[in-house]
């Protein structure tokens, strides 16, 4: 995908004379012409998409398949400035879904620090990255201004070049917590750099999607903070300072226990194994395998659909909002509040 910066910014949306469009069109034409695609309507196919905007021109056509993506942010969000407020430029909610798709980890850019190598961490909170972002990343700019003059907090402007990498290694390895606010999309490789560095992630987001949920519990090694609380002056630093050393040590032990899950390759040069036995690749396929029963049911439903029948695309792509019950009020919930129909993109479920 050539997004087209500078003078050609936004050109990727055009089809005429667009190499991206031609390549995407060629891929889809070749795949959909195959008997395997026709057998299932693409529902038993898997697309590995390394960026939320990859295959943008043919997004509706690959929607029946399982999409392996690092983030739904680029699919859901509409940049009103660049899109001119045109909703046709937005990836529709009938095309991506936690029910059929799989969130995969970014590849971390920093080397893995093992628990036995952990040293003193004099810095409370660390962040390195670009201050100015779009869409949900506007929160980052506000957080930056709030945190800039806080003691024991380091906010560094930087980019993933050689110098920035060395600074990030030092900064993450000498900090108790690593800040993870949204960028242009809710997640980034920074989260997995923090895990590799045994720096407890502080995730500031109300809607982030994470890899392998249900297989691992992120609350055992990460701090989750709502945007509203993070925007309150001194709230975040006061909260982090009140976390005990015992709790931080436990978080760090748990971080060490999940590092291998986010590894695509074995980082030990002496090892002859190309990837961890229970690393990212196997976890991705385990998560994909969980979709199998839904795929089989969707294919069966498609076969019995009468010719000429029109079934609208429907998809609840995010779970219903959680209802927090205050035990002291003994709140009661009706069945309609607890149960919500689950439907999958292009699966008629």
TrEMBL record:
Residues 19-239 form the Exostosin GT47 domain. It is found in: Golgi apparatus membrane. One of its GO terms (molecular function) is glycosyltransferase activity. The keyword Transferase applies. Pfam families: Exostosin_GT47. Keywords: Glycosyltransferase, Golgi apparatus, Signal-anchor, Transferase, Transmembrane. It is a single-pass type II membrane protein. It comes from the Eukaryota. One of its GO terms (cellular component) is Golgi membrane. Belongs to the glycosyltransferase 47 family. This is Exostosin GT47 domain-containing protein.
């Amino acid at each position: 995908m050539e997004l087209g910066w500078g003078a050609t910014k936004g050109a990727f949306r055009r089809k005429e004379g667009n190499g991206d469009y031609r390549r995407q069109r060629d891929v889809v034409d070749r795949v959909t012409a195959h008997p395997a695609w026709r057998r299932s309507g693409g529902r038993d196919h898997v697309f590995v998409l390394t960026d939320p905007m990859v295959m943008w021109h043919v997004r509706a056509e690959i929607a029946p398949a399982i999409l392996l993506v690092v983030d739904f942010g680029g699919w859901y969000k509409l940049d009103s400035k660049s899109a001119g407020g045109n909703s046709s430029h937005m990836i529709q909610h009938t095309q991506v879904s936690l029910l059929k798709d799989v969130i995969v980890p970014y590849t971390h850019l920093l080397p893995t620090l093992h628990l036995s190598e952990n040293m003193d961490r004099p810095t409370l909170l660390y962040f390195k990255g670009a201050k100015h972002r779009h869409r949900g990343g506007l929160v980052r700019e506000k957080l930056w201004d709030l945190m800039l003059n806080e003691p024991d907090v380091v906010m560094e402007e930087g980019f993933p070049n050689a110098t920035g990498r060395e600074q990030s290694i030092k900064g993450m390895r000498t900090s108790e917590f690593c800040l993870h606010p949204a960028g242009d999309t809710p997640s980034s490789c920074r989260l997995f750099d923090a895990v590799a560095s045994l720096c407890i992630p502080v995730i500031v987001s109300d809607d982030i999607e994470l890899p392998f949920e249900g297989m691992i519990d992120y609350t055992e090694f990460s701090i989750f903070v709502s945007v509203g609380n993070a925007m309150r002056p001194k709230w975040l630093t006061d909260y982090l300072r009140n976390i005990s050393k015992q709790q931080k040590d436990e978080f760090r032990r748990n971080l060490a226990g999940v590092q291998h899950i986010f590894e695509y390759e074995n980082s030990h040069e002496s090892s002859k194994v190309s990837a961890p036995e229970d690393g990212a690749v196997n976890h991705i396929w385990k998560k994909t395998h969980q979709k199998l029963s839904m795929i089989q049911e969707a294919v069966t439903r498609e076969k019995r659909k009468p010719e000429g029948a029109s079934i609208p695309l429907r998809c609840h792509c995010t779970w219903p909002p959680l209802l927090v019950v205050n035990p002291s009020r003994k709140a009661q919930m009706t069945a309609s509040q607890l149960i919500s129909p689950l439907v999958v993109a292009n699966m008629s479920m």
